[in-house]
Amino acid sequence: MHHSSEFIHYGVIASSIAISSISVGLGEGLISWSAISAINRQPAARDDIMRVAIIGMTLVETVAILGLLIAILLLMYTNAYVTNHYAHYAEIGIACAMGITGLVIGLASALPAQAACNAVARQPFFAHRISGFMLMTQVLIQTPMISAFLVSLFIQGQSDAAITFSDSLRLLASGLCVGLGSIGPAIGLSAFAKAAVTSLGNNTKAYDKLLSFTFISEALIETPIIFCLIIAIILLFAIPKTPITNDIDGIIFLAAGLCAGLGTLGTGISSGKTAAAACTQIGNHPDAYNMLSRTSILAQSLIETVVLYTIILSFLMILFR
Amino acid sequence: MNSTELIETQEWSFGSIIGYEDNPLLIINSEIVIHTWVIMIILALALASINIILQYTTIGRFLLIQLVSFFIDLTKQSLGYFVFSHCVFAGSLFIFIALCNTASIIPWLDEPTRDLNTALALGIISFFYIQVAIIKARGVRFYIKDFFQPFFVMLPLNIVGKLSSIVSISFRLFGNIFGGSIITKLYFTAIRGSILLELLGILTGMNFLIIAFFTLFEGLLQAFVFAMLTLTYLSIGTQDSSH
After folding, report:
1. pLDDT of residue A99
2. Per-residue pLDDT band at A41 (split at 50, 70, 90)
3. Does residue B2 carry a pLDDT above 50?
4. B77, exposed or middle or buried, with CB in 10 Å at 0-12, 13-18, 19+?
5. CA distances (Å), B209 to each of B169, B204, B227, in order?
6. Nearest CB to B175: which of A226, A294, A309?
7. Which of A312, B24, B167, B238 suits a disulfide with B137, CB 3.0-4.6 Å?
8. How far does A223 lie from chain B, in Å, by closest CA?
9. Chain B residues bordering chain A (beta-carbon distance below 8 Å)
10. What is the residue-wise DSSP string for A45-72?
11. CA neighbor of A182 nearest in space, from A214, A142, A213, A154
12. Which domains does chain A carry?
């Protein structure tokens, strides 16, 4: 029993850094591949394309740095709770939060940088604006990573005090909720950001309209992540009702976390694809911006109603258990 | 016990009604109410001095005109036509929420919107305004008929769908501001320990970046999204969907 729980501890440390590093490596490979093919197409814009690619890679690397910070933090506290097995079970939540989120975000934030390299090759004199636009979209894509980092810090702080099985399941559920919740929205955000940067490369005159549309749409696509963060924080602060050890509480917490996390999957992807289609059309016809943006925002806010049902359900599960 | 202590120790709890007292998200915090009053006083002072701003300061005049024309454009853009009261409503929501979201840059002040109660209150205000506007625009008969829309059985689903717009609009605001304020607070408590870290934070601009992104940018963006969504819901409801 003792050795198996230590095995879990070191496994969590390894997976929180390794999985995010794998995705960051793949993402940087994708960026450099499209940078080289863009230079091949437009050799005169070599410096601009290289600059855009390097900025993109630096931002993608943030994911691996956050994973490294969590791994170092866990390694520093290894001796603090050697005898507490429940703390080690709770730490699986950190692996879920950092691992799943890192895996998705590392690849997702590489897509707009890829599109930006191609866009700069197409419009070399607009490189400055394109790189700024890419920077903004990438920063917004990486907010789930920050929320996962935050929840991991909280789990690490509380895992020391976990003394029952339901406590450790609660912390595990909190990490799972954030990790699973970021998959769908991150895919949607990356699809949207890729479409936005590509359509900026196709039509530079639509810059102002694309910029304001990007702000609103990314805030809307990101909303499921925020809901998951709220559920995760509620789980972190929820205290088991019965003083006696009761495993059913922990199973309810786990179900609530899974419900909130899995509920965002379809919503995030479809909301992102809706906004991406609207963005492509705005690039083609900037005159129809009013109608396109209104339709897209309306569709997105209706799509997001679905995720609210799962959030309300998991909220009620935690409250009235 | 003096009066300030009395105010700080009093806590009314929604959680205590349903037997769930420990969750800090469900407690009505009296500090937040006082911070909201401070913001209201700031807004009232700005309103009282609006003639001075318009007559004697060029920058204030320019900014005010920009803000008003921005909201007129936004209303036209999202509704497709211009209604003065909708424009004023969305604009005042934006100004109040933007000030609430960025209140933490003023010393001793917290963001009132990081409390779920403030965000829910704003969402409910927006919801009732939208319902009244729909009834005014389309008539009571249409409004009631809309609940039975595809067929009679859909009534409960339609009611839940209408009510969920409150939760969607207010949880979005609350979650973003709450997350941002937690991140900034964690960062500043982390660097408070050593002088070296604080100096490094000031000199590299990290302090400024964190505040600029999580407080100013996120706060203004979320206030804008709130006003924009109110206008969008208005345009869904008041427009004829039959053609």
Report:
1. 93
2. very high
3. no
4. middle
5. 27, 9, 26
6. A226
7. B238
8. 6
9. 18, 20, 22-25, 77-78, 80, 160-161, 164-165, 167-168, 171-172, 174-176, 178-179, 182-183, 186, 213, 221-222, 224-225, 228-229, 232-233, 235-236
10. GHHHHHHHHHHHHHHHHHHHHHHHHHHH
11. A142
12. 2-319 (1.20.120.610)
Mark yes or no for CB contact A230/B182 under 8 Å: no
φ, ψ (nearest 5 deg) of residue A45:
-95, 30
User: ipTM of the assembly?
Assistant: 0.74
pLDDT tens profile B87-121: 999 999 999 999 999 998 888 888 888 888 889 99
Which whole-number Å values give the CA distances from B203 to A90, A295, B32, B196, in the listed order? 38, 46, 33, 10
Cβ–Cβ gap A301/B183 under 8 Å? no
Highest average pLDDT, of A57-66, B139-148, B193-202, comes from: A57-66
Q: Which two tokens stand for residue B154?
A: 């859909």
Q: Residues of B1-32 as b/e, b for ≥16 C-beta within 10 angstroms?
A: eeeeeeeeeeeeeebeeeebeebebbbebeeb
Beta bridge partner(s), residue B13: B27
Beta carbons of B171 and A227 less than 8 Å apart: yes
> What count of Cα atoms within 13 Å lies in the side-chain half-sphere of residue B205?
3
Closest CA to B31 of B117, B144, B123: B117
What pLDDT score was predicted for residue B106? 86
Q: Do B164 and A308 touch (CB under 8 A)?
A: yes
Confidence of residue A7 (pLDDT cuts 50, 70, 90): confident
Q: Which residues from chain B sit within 8 angstroms of residue A182, using beta carbons? A: none
For chain A, give the percent of residues with pLDDT over 90. 47
The two tokens of residue B32 are 């937040």
Tokens 């940088």 belong to A113
Provide the mean pLDDT of chain A: 88
How much of chain A, in percent, has pLDDT values that exceed 70?
95
**Beta strand pairing call for B27-28 and B12-13:** antiparallel
- Mean per-residue pLDDT for A305-316? 85
Q: What is the pLDDT of residues A223-258, one digit of tens each?
A: 888 889 888 988 887 766 555 556 788 888 999 999
Q: What is the pLDDT of residues B218-237, one digit of tens each?
A: 899 889 889 988 988 888 77
Q: Are A60 and A31 in contact (CB under 8 A)?
A: yes
Contact map slice: A 217-246 vs B, CB within 8 A: 219-220, 223, 226-227, 229-230, 233-234, 237-239
* Pair A62, A139: CB distance under 8 Å: no
Q: Show me where the domains of chain B are located.
A: 3-238
A247-284 and A207-237 helices cross at what angle (nearest 10)?
180
Task: Report the residue from A229, A234, A290 with minimal CB separation from B23.
Answer: A234
A108, B174, B214, B201 alpha-carbon torsion, rounded to 10°: -120
Nearest CA in chain B to A290: B77
